[in-house]
């Protein structure tokens, strides 16, 4: 896909190329002194210079195809092996398509390949715990598709294991690596829209287009499908990007398929407290409307039954930012600065072209999903982090993944679908019983 030159923006009027890059961009570009403008308006030349990294691809489905294609934009990030759980034939077919030499009929074999430094995990959700645990125990860094796991408990276990093994491990929240989103974070940190007070974000895509009902993994309870796990992580991550604290209230509603027992759509209203605990109650300070920084609300929704605008709007006290559709992999951002008088604002829009795709990508069948060339931003940032010995990326931290997981657990609980609820209750009962037994033993010892 050749880029239309008209889309390449002239950013010089709004960016100062001599400014140092914002912190979050540092690991996405070759050096902190590289002007953000140049990186953003001509991505290929910067992406092509990232450190080398040897990837193993775990899964041979659609997103694994797209991720592997995007590695072709980064000459030094090479897929050296791939594995399919379904069959060796599937792995070999994938390998032939992408020129990958080592093809395995099981993930175990991939985990034993000494040439693989990092594994991209892109299969169905239910195997997350098993597969990521296996890869970490085999000493591989891991990039794991969203959702990172099927519960907060599993995610915490995997991150603890990664830390113990001193390995990079991250959720593939690729949205965060798009220059459009890096620009949004820059706008927020500059204070251009003041304090964020509200985030609206939606992501409904019509699964009828590509997924056979009821057979697709997207509708499968057994494989941990459902709209909240396939689409929900994006709007949740959009809200978390703007508020520092964990929500103090999460109100959810969902549409559950009565036959399949998975959610087909959901909405969430979140309120976020100020992390400055006592800001409101300091009697020495006169009260003001916006004194408690970080306080605000988010309205998020996602689903499989229709196609939404797929936009994210971030409302601040001095203006707002619109992340244009498709907001989970965006190339366009509008900043509207509030002017005097209600309804008055001035706006500026930036376009950030996607990386150009190569002949090699075209001849091997291109991409399945929208804007997948942007996966190269994520892959490049991760190559830089691994090279620098970092165990996570500043763009999307483990703490954020854990927050997403906790919110997803809560959504599933509120719509009556949290599979691990019984397991959790049993554990709580066991813990209580253990405490009681200890008390009894202590009493006996004392007497
Ligand atoms: N970042 C992004 O933009 C996107 C991310 N995703 C995420 O990527 C992951 C995979 O999605 P996608 O590629 O669309 O999925 P696919 O349906 O294309 O399948 C992915 C892989 O999962 C395994 N699989 C598929 N069906 C079954 C089944 N019935 N039982 C057991 N295993 C099965 C297969 O693994 P194998 O090849 O090993 O046999 C298959 O290749 C999900 O986590 C999804 O949330 C999805 C779309 C876009
Ligand atoms: O992450 C995703 O999951 C589902 C897909 O259809 C969508 O395009 C995507 O990026």
TrEMBL record:
The keyword Transcription does not apply. It comes from the Eukaryota. InterPro entries: Gfo/Idh/MocA-like_OxRdtase_N, Gfo/Idh/MocA_domain, GFO_IDH_MocA-like_dom, NAD(P)-bd_dom_sf. Residues 432-447 have a biased composition (Basic and acidic residues). One of its GO terms (molecular function) is D-xylose 1-dehydrogenase (NADP+) activity. Residues 271-280 have a biased composition (Polar residues). The keyword Ribonucleoprotein does not apply. Its EC number is 1.1.1.179. Residues 53-171 form the Gfo/Idh/MocA-like oxidoreductase N-terminal domain. Residues 422-431 have a biased composition (Acidic residues). It catalyses: D-xylose + NADP(+) = D-xylono-1,5-lactone + NADPH + H(+). Residues 182-320 form the GFO/IDH/MocA-like oxidoreductase domain. Keywords: Oxidoreductase. It holds the Pfam family GFO_IDH_MocA_C3. Residues 271-290, 422-447 are annotated as: Disordered. Belongs to the Gfo/Idh/MocA family. This is D-xylose 1-dehydrogenase (NADP(+), D-xylono-1,5-lactone-forming). The lineage of its organism: Eukaryota, Sar, Stramenopiles, Ochrophyta, Bolidophyceae.
